[in-house]
Every structure is written in C-alpha cells, then in structure tokens.
From TrEMBL:
This is Homoserine O-acetyltransferase. The record marks 192 as: Important for substrate specificity. It comes from Nostocoides jenkinsii Ben 74. CDD domains: GATase1_HTS. The gene is metA. It catalyses: L-homoserine + acetyl-CoA = O-acetyl-L-homoserine + CoA. The lineage of its organism: Bacteria, Bacillati, Actinomycetota, Actinomycetes, Micrococcales. GO terms for molecular function: homoserine O-acetyltransferase activity; homoserine O-succinyltransferase activity.
Length: 315
C-alpha cells in the first residue's frame, strides 16, 4: 500500500526516485474507497482447484475484493459438477452486463490446438473485446496469456520440441515497472507448457513491454504500457505439489515425460519438492491489484472506457 506524505516533503522526490510508492496528502484526501470487483474467467477443467489457487493469492491483500466466477457458455465442462457451476458461476452472457475493476483469464490444457479450433474461441474473443470498456485491468495466465496476445496483437504461439516443465529462474528486465516492485533481480516461477510466445514478437509490438524472461523457459511476464493488460506465461498460482501430481499422472499412464527441472531436491522425484516461488506469486498478484487496479480504476465503474489517461497523466 502507498505511504501518504505531505506534497512538499523533501523525502518525496528521493523515495519516488527509488521507486517507492508514495501518495501526496491531496491525492489521498480525494480518494474514494470501495470494494474492488474482480472477475475470474476460469477455463481450467479442474475448476475448484484453480479457484482455491487464485483466491489464495488474491486474499493476501488488505484490499476488500468482491469475486465473480465466470465460465464460457459455449463449452460444457466435464470435470466440474453442474451443481457447482450453477451455484457459483455466471456465464459470460450473464456477466457481460456488469463492469469490473479487474479480470483474470486462466490457462487451459488446450495449447497444442490452433486458437480457432477451440470450441469457445469466438465467445472468448467476444469477452476480450468486451473487457476493453468493461474492465480496467486484465491479468492473463498461461494459455490465457497466449490467447490474449494472439487476439489483441496477432502474436503467434509456437510448438516446442520439448515441454517446458519445472521451476525456472527469471530475470527482471525493467525493475522500475510497478508490476515488478519488490522483486529480486532473479526469481523462480513454475512453467508447464508445450508451446511458447517469443520475446522478439513482444518487443516488436508497439504498446507492449517485455518485463521478465528466463534463459531456459523464455518469456514469462509482459504487459501493456498503460498497465491495463498483463500477460503471465507461467503458473505462479501452482501449489507445492501441482507439478508432482502432473508428473506422477503421466508416469502412471506410461507416457514419456522428463522430471520437472529445478523442482525436486537434486532433481530426484523420490524426494519431496520444496516451494521456492510462493513469495513471488503473492507479490505479483499484490502488485497487479495495487498498481494496475486499485490505484487507477475509476470509483464509478461506469467511467471505464477503452482509452483512459496514462499513469503519468494522473499524478
């Protein structure tokens, strides 16, 4: 959360130069406070597990959040009970009359399919278009990041010779970006995917910033320059045993799968894996909620539009 200080305090300029988030008394006085409305478009087949993972990260904040779970009407989930969906989810047509401060679009285990071959692709494209003037900031995760980059910018995904599977070190490319506030220069994060988005394509796209990469796993974090779109190609929300369960499942099926890298101590799957990415995951979600959503979203959600002033113009 920001530190509120007098506008003329000499420390203000020093702290701002160090990328410490400070707020002047005038701005703090005029802030209106209300719960943030966050929608989660859950595309994962294991919806209940994904709900828990995301809500755990979102709950680690002093901000009050109102969560709305959303699913695709054009897709019939086979791994989640209809009673659960009916009780806790809105379809996109039911949700589209509302506005939200933030939106999360999850991954889905369909990355080897062409985007247009996904049964709910037209509906997801309609949702992404709708979000431009109904949501202030959208966080895309894994396949959701690939889908958003493809639909909005035409950035392709490419198949990999070998699955990127494990917990990989990543380098911060822009330490002054608010999403990366408090990050170490190198931080770990899990990946589990058969395709990649290439750094050169993001760097060549006006309005997009490449924020963190891995020498082994490639692109991890990118975002629009105005903070209203965030793209995470990995899975910071994973629990300590998510990669283990995926590995054990494929081994039990007799599938060819490599041991997840940098995950088990000594890369020995007989040993219990250790969580090394949890603090990064909490910090990433807290930064998104604070800097991309809470500090900039209009108090009146009816004022959200596709084009809003840049962060610099609002200071």
């Amino acid at each position: 959360m920001p530190v509120t200080i007098p506008s003329a305090l000499p420390a203000r300029r020093i702290l701002e130069g160090e990328n410490v988030f400070v707020m002047t008394e005038g701005r703090a006085f005029h802030q209106d406070i209300r719960p943030l409305k966050i929608a989660i478009v859950n595309l994962m087949p294991t919806k209940m597990a994904t709900e828990t993972q995301l809500l755990r990260l979102l709950g680690n904040t002093p901000l009050q959040l109102e969560i709305t779970l959303v699913r695709m009407e054009s897709h019939d989930p086979r791994n989640t009970a209809a009673a659960h969906l009916d009780a806790f989810y809105l379809t996109f047509p039911e949700a589209r009359t509302r506005r939200f401060d933030g939106l999360i679009v999850t991954g889905a285990p369909i990355e080897t399919l062409p985007f247009e071959a996904v049964d709910y692709w037209p509906e997801l494209c309609a949702l992404l278009d709708w979000s431009r003037d109904h949501v202030f900031s959208t966080l895309h995760v894994c396949w959701g990041a690939q889908a958003g980059l493809y639909h909005r910018y035409g950035i392709e995904k490419f198949p990999l010779a070998d699955k990127i599977f494990g917990v990989f070190p990543h380098r911060v490319l822009d330490p002054r970006n608010r999403l990366l506030s408090g990050f170490d220069a190198v931080f770990p994060a899990p990946h589990s995917r058969h395709t990649e988005t290439r750094a050169a394509d993001i760097e060549a796209t006006p309005g997009l910033d490449l924020l963190a990469v891995s020498d082994e796993a490639g692109v991890y974090l990118a975002g629009s320059s105005d903070g209203r779109e965030v793209y995470v190609t990995g899975h910071p929300e994973y629990e300590w045993d998510t990669l283990k369960r995926e590995y054990d499942r494929d081994v039990d099926k007799g599938l060819s799968i490599e041991v997840p890298r940098h995950y088990y101590p000594g890369d020995d799957p007989s040993r219990q894996p250790q969580v090394t990415w949890r603090s990064h995951a909490y910090l990433l979600y807290a930064n998104w909620l604070n800097y991309c959503v809470y500090q900039r979203t209009p108090y009146d959600l009816g004022e959200i539009s596709a084009e809003l002033p840049s962060p610099a113009a609002e200071e």
